[in-house]
Write a sequence for this structure.
């Protein structure tokens, strides 16, 4: 057994695992994260996709059936169960999948959504071809993919709009703002015509 520490969906877990345990089995069987599902166990379907931090701390999508639990030691993992906000507001990708009916049986959906989140982190405005390429490691037997593509496109637009509205605006300096006590009281604006002119 090997002791590992993994932060999953914002919670730190210390566990003993066998060196051969796959991350997906650790998540499901030891941590109860059953939103992460196993479709093939051979790294083909993408159903088990989660986000995991790399050495630089950046979260990227990985197929958790192709990662050993010991490889996640010291890393952060986000599953579909930790993607919503603290007040349970759905992530824009989750919301778009719901709104676009991009789900039928739902088996591929957790992995599809987390791969889409990774794609949109890399590329905020992907073309349809880029979305298809970004999700090529995730298989869906039900939807025909059209609504999944539309959902990712919608989510990208929502995320771009949010980013734009959160961007800081040009700072404006109000009268008196930024003055120090040494500057004395703010001077009133005096129109040029009111300034006494020297007597010729
Ligand atoms: Fe199919 Fe992991 S379960 S890729
Ligand atoms: Fe059924 Fe994708 S919705 S496999």
């Amino acid at each position: 057994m090997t002791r590992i520490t993994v932060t999953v969906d914002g919670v730190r877990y210390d566990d003993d695992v066998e060196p051969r345990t796959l991350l997906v089995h650790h998540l499901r069987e030891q941590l109860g994260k059953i939103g992460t599902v196993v479709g093939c166990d051979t790294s083909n379907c993408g159903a088990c996709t989660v986000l995991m931090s790399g050495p630089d701390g950046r979260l990227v999508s990985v197929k958790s059936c192709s990662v050993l639990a010991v490889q996640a030691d010291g890393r952060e993992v986000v599953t579909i169960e930790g993607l919503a906000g603290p007040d349970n507001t759905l992530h824009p990708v989750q919301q778009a999948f719901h709104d676009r009916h991009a789900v039928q049986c739902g088996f591929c959906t957790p992995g599809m959504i987390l791969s889409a989140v990774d794609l949109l982190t890399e590329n905020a405005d992907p073309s349809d071809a880029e979305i298809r390429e970004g999700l090529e490691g995730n298989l869906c037997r039900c939807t025909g993919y059209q609504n999944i593509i539309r959902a990712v496109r919608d989510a990208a637009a929502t995320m771009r709009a949010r980013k734009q509205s959160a961007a800081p605006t040009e700072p404006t300096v109000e009268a008196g703002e930024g003055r120090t006590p040494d500057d004395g009281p703010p001077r009133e604006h005096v129109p040029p015509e009111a300034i006494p002119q020297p007597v010729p």
Residues 103-109, 140-143 surround FE2/S2 (inorganic) cluster (ligand 2) (CB under 6 Å). The radius of gyration is 26 Å. The domain at 92-162 is CATH 1.10.150.120 (DNA polymerase; domain 1). Confidence is low (pLDDT under 50) at residues 172-192.
